[in-house]
């Protein structure tokens, strides 16, 4: 079973609906343009940004994948969806601006990921191919987070 990372841009009304109801709204076809998927790259993105398998640091970039507070009790597949409020989204967007491809490559270490069992990397993984996969997903997410921050919206993050 795959663990896919999702991000959903949500205005305050949508956040309230999520708090009061179910996460079905996240996959509603009418909201398709608000949903962003980083496929299985979520854990490698987190590890590259933080050097941590599951932990976070005080740096806002570390809150991108595992940050936020549960928006409700519904299990989205691998725990509840988490809310990253719009003021935090702005901090994350600002922090991500320093992460260009060279900086990301410098922090990317497939040997450490294998040793620390970072999902979904495997022993026989090509470092360059895996880097390109993770970088492409991160670059798209970075741009998306910037757009959400500029729109002053919240982010719902979950793994399904």
| CATH homologous superfamily placement | YfbM-like super family
Low-confidence runs (pLDDT<50, min 5 residues)?
A: none
Distance between the termini: 10 Å
Q: Strand pairing plus helix content: what structural class?
A: alpha+beta
The DSSP helix count reads: 7
What is the CATH domain class? Alpha Beta
Count of β-strands: 5
Largest sheet properties = 5 strands, antiparallel
* Helical content band: 40-55%
Count of the domains: 1
Tell me, what's the shape? globular
What is the fold named in CATH at topology level? Answer: Hypothetical protein yfbM fold
Question: How would you explain this protein's 3D organization?
Answer:
The chain has a single domain, classed as YfbM-like super family (Hypothetical protein yfbM fold). With 160 residues, the chain is α+β, with helices and mostly antiparallel strands. The longest helix has 24 residues, at 127-150. The protein has helices at 12-20, 42-50, 63-66, 86-96, 101-107, 110-115, 127-150; strands at residues 5-10, 35-39, 69-75, 80-84, 154-159. The chain is globular, with a radius of gyration of 15 Å. Strand 3 and strand 4 (80-84) form a beta hairpin. The mean pLDDT is 96. Strands 2-1-5-4-3 form a 5-stranded antiparallel beta sheet, with helices on both faces. It has 7 helices and 5 strands; from the N terminus they run E-H-E-H-H-E-E-H-H-H-H-E.
